[in-house]
Specification:
Elements (H helix, E strand, L loop, with lengths): L2 H15 L20 E7 L5 H6 L1 H7 L4 H15 L10 H8 L6 E6 L4 H7 L11 E6 L4 H13 L6 E7 L2 E8 L2 E8 L2 E5 L2 H11 L13 H6 L8 E6 L2 H5 L10 H7 L5 E11 L2 E10 L29 E6 L2 H15 L7 H13 L3 H5 L2 E9 L9 E7 L2 H12 L3 E7 L2 E13 L2 E12 L3 E5 L2 H13 L9 H7 L8 E6 L5 H12 L21 H5 L3 H6 L2 E9 L2 E8 L1
Antiparallel strand pairs: 1-2, 1-8, 2-3, 3-7, 4-5, 5-6, 6-7, 8-9, 9-10, 10-20, 11-12, 11-18, 12-13, 13-17, 14-15, 15-16, 16-17, 18-19, 19-20
Length: 582
């Protein structure tokens, strides 16, 4: 996934939640109200206030009249999907708009671990074991009572088999018990809230806490895992928390086919990760996305995958000042390989552990060297950059850090010997043209989808077009000290993050030619794919251009999107990710 795609999905997810009109400042069930056995929660605190919707770049983008074609396309996509259902179950545009307004209010989705699990295991009573589903959902239905009831009835009536519905009482509240072949769901709409759970004990606990009644069990916020993660919890439009060690208890001993799940979980050393959590904050014009995996980063854990990092990625020296985007990731390749071996050993049946050594020998035969030696040829740094204002994919450039140029070139020959179309040297740089697609027949070998690779002393420079590679190499040799790293905007973005990082991203939306970008997307969408024949033997029809692409004024993006910057880093507490969109 390239940088533009990454930001596209992030923006899409953000504006999907931030696209309605009302405002709710608090979740129906805040973490301080949740029981200590909460394994997971996802909180949506409702829409931002009216002032923030004007000043925040993402919220303002959604509300901009120029963005209407994109909003309409979302509804059209849902309508198209609905057309595949029986006539009586299809949604109308009015229904979709009504149901979408439910996102104006806050909700919580969570999971409570089984409080009886340890006692059942200790008693070794197989009759005490039962499938536990601790999921729960709580929604603030203020002002949405009629729409919510309508939506629930619509969903229930659209089921292939009508469920059995009866009324019971839990915690003094009338509750609907919905019985299906796949299980039971308990649903209630009472007072300010609507709530659902699959276990009566879970719903009873949630209803008690919604009512503000004292509970004998401790709160989630008293747990060490939550206290450790507190710096990125407790606020934001979106917030999530997952207590990872509990997954070991949730994971079955084995899955279908005899695959051993629990040993694999143990080999991954998930216990070294205490929690995975994050939030989305809207602060004036900026939107901040934070995520963190907290735990023990000592050697031998899952954290070994990520490099300890540096102050500035070496590949930044290749990035010219006019670059639209740049992203960098530093991986500990040896740590990744050690993890893969541990997992492989955990899932192999007893007596077949030697197969791991066999794989090593096969790699030795194929590569002419051990996997450890092959990995040592690379630094673990992977980067990409884009210099085209129209975000032309042909000018997307990839960088792979290397330690040993002759060894890296030899390895490329070993792996892609039949894919190398041409090769030559220019000074100290080796150029290769490599095909990623091809076929052989009696008439010969046909190749397509070429990438051009330039091996320098410390990097493999890769792009779909040779001129893109040459242009970057020329700028690198001529512009020492005058690249993106010296740009004031980039330096200001970099200053937001710690001194040592193992990942860095920067996207300057102000450098995008949005009209040219739109024209390129339309041209590519209208191309006739010649590689795949149509069923009748002729050429495939051109891909229709999405209506929103034709109708939207791309300048709407220029009005609201300016810069996105991100970084990741590893410290004694865990792995951190932070991104700002403004």
């Amino acid at each position: 996934m390239n940088v533009m795609q990454k930001h596209y999905w992030l923006l899409t997810a953000s504006i999907f939640f931030l696209g309605a009109n009302a405002a709710c400042a608090q979740a129906p069930l805040e973490p301080a109200q949740m029981p200590a056995n909460t394994t997971f929660y996802f909180v949506w605190r409702g829409q931002p206030n009216a002032e923030l919707k004007k000043t925040n770049s993402i919220a303002a983008l959604w509300d901009d009249p120029g963005f209407a074609p994109v909003r309409s396309s979302v509804i059209n996509a849902i309508l198209k999907n609905s057309e595949e259902k029986p006539t009586e179950n299809r949604l109308t545009r009015q229904q979709i708009e009504e149901y979408a307004s439910l996102l104006e209010n806050a909700f919580v989705l969570g999971y409570l671990s089984d409080p009886q699990k340890k006692r059942a295991e200790a008693s070794d009573d197989s009759s005490a074991a039962k499938t536990w589903n601790g999921m729960f959902f709580v929604y603030d239905r203020t002002g949405k009572e009629a729409i919510l009831s309508k939506a629930v009835l619509s969903l229930r009536s659209s089921e292939k088999e009508t469920p059995q519905v009866s009324q019971i009482t839990i915690a003094g509240v009338p509750v609907l018990k919905v019985q299906r072949k796949t299980g039971v769901t308990y649903w209630m709409e009472h007072g300010k809230y609507a709530a659902s759970a699959n276990e009566p004990a879970v719903l009873e606990e949630i209803l008690s806490r919604l009512a503000g009644k004292a509970s004998s069990s401790a709160a989630l916020t008293d747990s060490p895992a939550y206290k450790e993660a507190h710096s990125v919890l407790g606020s934001g439009q979106v917030e999530f928390f997952l207590r990872v060690p509990d997954l070991k208890n949730v994971a079955p001993e084995s899955a279908a086919g005899g695959f051993q799940v629990r040993p694999m979980v143990e080999a991954l050393k998930l216990d070294s990760i205490h929690s995975f959590c994050g939030r989305v904050l809207m602060e004036a014009a900026k939107t901040r996305v934070q995520a963190v995996a907290l735990g023990d980063t000592a050697p031998g854990s899952l954290f070994d995958i990520w490099d300890k990092g540096s102050a500035a990625p070496a590949s930044l020296n290749f990035v010219p000042a006019d670059a639209v985007s740049y992203s960098n990731t530093q991986i500990n390749l040896n740590g990744l390989y050690d993890l893969a071996k541990r997992v492989a050993a955990s899932i192999l049946p007893p007596g077949q552990q030697g197969n791991i050594n066999m794989l090593e020998m096969m790699a030795q035969a194929k590569l002419g060297q051990s996997l450890t030696s092959a990995l040592a040829l690379f630094t673990g740094e992977f980067a990409s950059l884009q210099t085209s204002p129209s975000l032309d994919n042909n000018k997307q450039i990839y960088l792979i850090g290397i330690r040993d140029k002759p060894g890296a070139v030899k390895l490329i020959h070993t792996l892609f010997s039949d894919k190398i179309n041409s090769e030559h040297a220019e000074g100290d740089i080796a150029f290769m043209k490599i095909s990623t697609g091809g076929s052989s027949s009696a008439a010969g070998t046909a190749q397509w989808d070429f990438y051009h690779v330039a091996a320098t002393s410390d990097y493999l420079v890769i792009a779909p077009r040779l001129e893109a590679v040459r242009e970057l190499l020329a700028k690198h040799s001529q512009g020492a000290g005058a690249g993106l790293a010296t740009a004031p905007g980039f330096q200001a973005a970099r200053a937001q993050f710690p001194a040592t990082i193992n990942g860095l991203g920067y996207f300057d939306f102000r450098k995008v030619d949005w009209q040219a970008f739109k024209a390129r997307l339309i041209a590519e969408a209208n191309k006739t794919p010649t590689a795949k024949p149509s069923p009748n033997g002729g050429k495939s029809a051109a891909t229709p251009t999405p209506s929103w692409m034709l109708d939207v004024n791309p300048e709407v993006f220029a009005r609201h999107l300016h810069v996105a910057s991100s970084a990741s880093w590893k410290d004694a507490q865990g792995l951190h990710f932070d991104e700002w969109i403004e």
